Amino acid sequence: MKTLLLFILITACAKENKTLLGLKGDDKSLYPCEPDSHCVSSSHPSTEAKHYIDPIKTGNDLVSAREKIKTVLSTYPEIKIVEENDSYLKAEYTSKFLKFVDTIEILFVSEMANIKSSSKKNYFFFDSNRSRLEEIRFKFHQSGM
Predict the structure, then answer these.
(1) Closest Cα partner for 107 from 19, 20, 31?
(2) Is 7 domain-assigned?
(3) Cα–Cα–Cα angle for 73, 46, 88, nearest 5°?
(4) pTM for the full model?
(5) How many domains does the chain have?
(6) Is the residue at 130 inside a domain?
(7) What phi and psi values does residue 126 have, to the nearest 5 degrees?
(8) Could you say which of 26, 31, 39, 107 would form a disulfide bridge with 118 (CB–CB 3.0 to 4.6 Å)?
(9) Residue pLDDT, tens place only, 26-77
(10) How many CA atoms lie within 13 A of 33 on its CB side?
């Protein structure tokens, strides 16, 4: 019963996230986070700590970096890659308990991967977007890059 009440409370207060996804018109950057969204991005101005996160340093070999990121993402059963090309990955993370879906975007550019994670619904879940990207970065560097 408590679980049902918690679910109703969280989802009743949720609203659609207006953060734009995908690549900006120049195909070289991710959209920044909207001011009231639960989102973090390395493309966001670093002066806004609430939304900014450092990119992942990848080195020169972006092809290997992309494959290593895909390997790291594959270690999470909750993450599914839904779109990819040579320089961009889009994945969805579905939470085990309440089945909320967050979008993860990764754009590979000169010696780094810009990263972004945003909630599809603006629910508050203890900064999980930031924590998840930090964990992905840690596993990436732990794998030898």
Answers:
(1) 31
(2) no
(3) 35
(4) 0.81
(5) 1
(6) yes
(7) 55, 40
(8) 39
(9) 667 888 888 777 889 998 777 778 889 999 999 989 999 999 999 999 999 9
(10) 30
